[in-house]
Write a structure and sequence with these properties.
It contains 1 helix and no strands. The longest helix has about 60 residues. The chain has about 70 residues and is mostly helical.
């Protein structure tokens, strides 16, 4: 392999490494966004669960005998 081919191969590898670094950065950002979304979703579900449990308790307290009708 002559010097010209060697330089072209080096340039091609460098370009590929730049692309790989860019893709890795995008993936890291996407994973971060997914984790944030998952955290918000879990928080929302916990709030909904608390509200639903409170509503169930409130409704159960309004029924004759304090129990849930079947």
């Amino acid at each position: 392999m002559n010097n010209e081919h060697m330089q072209a191969a080096i340039k091609e590898l460098q370009d590929a490494m730049v692309v790989m670094a860019h893709l890795e950065k995008q993936q890291s950002e996407h994973i971060r966004d997914l984790r944030q979304f998952q955290h918000r979703t879990e928080q929302n579900l916990a709030e909904i669960t608390d509200k639903l449990n409170g509503l169930i308790g409130y409704v159960a307290g309004q029924r004759p005998g304090g129990g849930i009708q079947q």
